[in-house]
Amino acid sequence: MNDPIERNDPYETTETHVERLLGRALNSFDLPDALVERLRSALAHASALHASHHSAALHRATYRHTYLLADGASLTLWELVHHTGDDGRDHHELYADEAEVRLAAARLSDSFGFPDAVGLADPLDDDLDADLELLSALLVRPPAPAPRTYVPDHSADHARRVLRRAENANRPGDAVAARLRCAFAHHIQQVFGRQCSVAGGRDAGFSLYEHAFLLLDGSEMSVWEVEHTATPDGRHMCEVYEDERTARAAMELRARVRR
């Protein structure tokens, strides 16, 4: 089995890492909402192989992902990655508790005739305190966020097109449109992207973009665009909001995730 840690971008931000981890897990919506919300404040992370099993019939590995949160606390997620000899595609599962991932791994092995001793410590279990010490060291001097690179490229027209394609009734109004007519440069950044199940059992995609504008008076202004396919017929839809919190709340409402 390929190690998913080795395929990671070494310059990947913790936010991107969390979203990628949740996005590929088959059972991500079984995680408590409070835990997922806490993960949004993660400042740094470390991932390590915890245990593995490889045979002709089954390839299975357990990874531990440790996060340092903004309030100084730590949080750990356990990832089970597996595929069978007949299926070369990796399947990912996430668990908030080590006992749960051990049980899931044991059940998986049992189904292929490889019983695990669930209660025994794994030989590859490494020191959690060492991970936390490393994460703390990384945050002694947190790196400054990369500055936005504004592009002066018909930015007022770009703002007009963003607002025009918004289909939500509570999209930014005339006051925002008037200010954005003074935009002379802009920067676009994707801050969220995820596939999930919505009402009716369909899969839908959600993306959130920040459109940041530099205005003639030197001030900055952003609008937040949600693109999704959580529509009755699965068509692509755009919504625009004045702030990130409202945009994320709209995505959660649109998802109507089955619990």
Portion in beta strands: 25-35%
Structural class comes to alpha+beta
Number of helices: 7
Quantity of strands, as a count: 8
Compressed to H and E, one letter per element, the order equals HHEEEEHHHHEEEEH
Distance between the termini: 31 Å
Annotation keywords:
259 residues, alpha+beta, 32% strand, four-stranded antiparallel β-sheet, elongated, disordered N terminus
What this model shows, in words?
This protein has 259 residues and is α+β, with helices and mostly antiparallel strands. Helix content is 28%, strand content 32%. It contains 7 helices and 8 strands, in the order ααββββααααββββα. The protein has a 4-stranded antiparallel β-sheet with strand order 1-2-3-4, sandwiched between helices. Strands 5-6-7-8 form a 4-stranded antiparallel β-sheet. Strand 7 and strand 8 form a beta hairpin. It starts with 13 loop residues before the first helix and ends with a helix.
Layout: helices, strands, pairs:
Elements: H1 14-24, H2 33-39, E1 42-54, E2 58-69, E3 74-84, E4 91-95, H3 98-111, H4 128-138, H5 155-164, H6 174-180, E5 183-197, E6 203-215, E7 220-228, E8 237-241, H7 244-255
Antiparallel strand pairs: 1-2, 2-3, 3-4, 5-6, 6-7, 7-8
